[in-house]
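can u do me a favor
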């Protein structure tokens, strides 16, 4: 049955595939787990890195106006006071007086009934719960030693704005980019990678003159769609939600939520916001340092305005997996496969000798693998079990090509010497091609 026939993929199918095939595991699993944390295995890590590298390449490496940084996760707490996170980065929390469970007030369907113990009238009044994880720096236990794990990567860029200006003298408009971990003490982590407590973000703060904000906003809007396309996300599952004026954060004049049709509903994937000069203004007041930009041609000094595009890595990965998951029937057998774009697939091709007990086949197959690794290092080797099983294993992790070496490759049929069987993941179709042609197909698919 195809994905279309069977209906949409469920979150359980994705979670199960991730565990079964070594992509993603629950955090600290042998100790019963830790809510809102996940550990990436070899294939999940490769997929995540490919998603991040594609982003970095597109938005940093291929441009002349972008400055990548990698700031510390622990920052001076004054930075989070200035940004408003200490006083305002909170969610409304409600506690049940009977079972003591805590919930996000805005996620409750009925504020009279406890969703955990089912009692009526036991939920207290909502109170604001700050989502930053606090810890202590150094040996002192007093409050002056409190530091926070950053709740977003954005802050590290604003506090380094002056460093970038002083050392690189960029002309406006220019941007800063960062990929890294952020931590949020979510009241109710849920839906696998969608809402976690330890997350990863890819963020861009793009600095512009005030009068240029609309053009920059539109350019980043297109850029985000281009990235979605490069990831292979289907356009009909991606939606823009223009945040209404009354729902905008106080510092934002315009925000678009990029939403995705996940298995559990349409939810926020990424965000694009015009943040005015709020951030640089707040950090200028908070730090007492001048953060103004000097236009050397006009002599004018001003605080640049900011267009921020913010991407959650886990939410991106989950969208990629959900949209790639397929079930069908091939050769009379049910199979699961991931129709991943070859650019993000953890493994680009699998090389296999038809028989593993024939040294001449194994040797030739190893040589071919080494040759193909010049195109991309992620070329796997598999000589376990029968060839059909090897193909199915690769289908499940989204490997676009399987290459089999047989006696014809060695020249048993002279006109087929140095040709291989190239199998295509999505259709299961096979064709006989030269080694050079196989290399060319892989190169083309990932470029
Ligand atoms: N600097 C702006 C900012 O952090 P946000 O909307 O709070 O804005 C940006 O977060 C993105 O980070 C979201 O669109 C989402 O992709 C991701 N994100 C936020 N909280 C998350 C969580 N608890 N778990 C997974 N991803 C999260």
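np, heres the sequence
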């Amino acid at each position: 049955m195809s994905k279309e026939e069977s209906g949409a993929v469920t979150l359980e199918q994705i979670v199960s595939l991730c565990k079964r095939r070594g992509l993603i595991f629950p955090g600290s699993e042998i100790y019963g787990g830790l809510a809102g944390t996940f550990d990436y295995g070899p294939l999940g890590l490769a997929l995540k890195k490919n998603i991040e590298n594609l982003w970095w390449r597109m938005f940093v490496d291929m441009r002349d106006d972008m400055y990548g940084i990698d700031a510390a996760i622990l920052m001076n707490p004054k930075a989070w006071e200035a940004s408003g996170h200490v006083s305002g980065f909170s969610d409304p929390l409600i506690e049940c007086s009977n079972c003591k469970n805590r919930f996000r007030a805005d996620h409750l369907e009925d504020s009279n009934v406890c969703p955990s113990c089912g009692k009526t009238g036991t939920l207290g009044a909502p109170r604001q719960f700050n989502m930053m994880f606090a810890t202590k720096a150094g040996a002192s236990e007093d409050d002056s030693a409190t530091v926070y794990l950053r709740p977003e990567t954005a802050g590290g860029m604003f506090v380094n704005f002056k460093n970038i200006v002083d050392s690189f003298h960029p002309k406006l408009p220019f941007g800063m980019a960062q990929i890294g971990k952020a931590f949020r003490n979510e009241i109710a982590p849920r839906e696998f990678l969608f809402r976690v407590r330890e997350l990863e973000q890819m963020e861009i703060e793009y600095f512009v003159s005030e009068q240029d904000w609309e053009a920059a906003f539109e350019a980043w809007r297109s850029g985000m769609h281009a990235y979605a396309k490069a990831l292979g996300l289907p356009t009909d599952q991606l939606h823009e939600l223009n945040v209404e004026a009354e729902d905008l954060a106080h510092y934002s004049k315009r925000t678009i939520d990029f939403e995705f049709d996940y298995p559990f509903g349409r939810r926020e994937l990424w965000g694009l916001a015009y943040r005015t000069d709020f951030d640089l203004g707040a950090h200028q007041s908070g730090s007492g340092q001048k953060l103004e930009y000097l236009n050397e041609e006009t002599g004018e000094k001003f605080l640049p305005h900011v267009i921020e595009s913010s991407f959650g890595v886990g939410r991106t990965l989950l969208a990629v997996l959900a949209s790639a998951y397929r079930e069908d029937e091939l050769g009379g057998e049910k199979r699961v496969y991931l129709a991943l774009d070859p650019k993000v697939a953890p493994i680009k091709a699998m090389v296999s000798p038809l028989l593993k007990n024939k040294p001449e086949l194994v040797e030739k197959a190893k040589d071919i693998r080494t040759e193909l690794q010049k195109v991309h290092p992620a070329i796997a080797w598999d000589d376990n079990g029968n060839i059909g099983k090897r193909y199915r294993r690769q289908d499940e992790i989204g490997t676009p090509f399987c290459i089999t070496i047989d006696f014809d490759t060695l020249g048993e049929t002279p006109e087929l010497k140095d040709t291989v069987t190239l199998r295509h993941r999505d259709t299961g179709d096979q064709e006989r091609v030269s080694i050079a042609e196989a290399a060319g197909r892989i190169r083309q698919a990932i470029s």
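The CA atoms of residues 9 and 206 lie 36 Å apart. hope that helps!!
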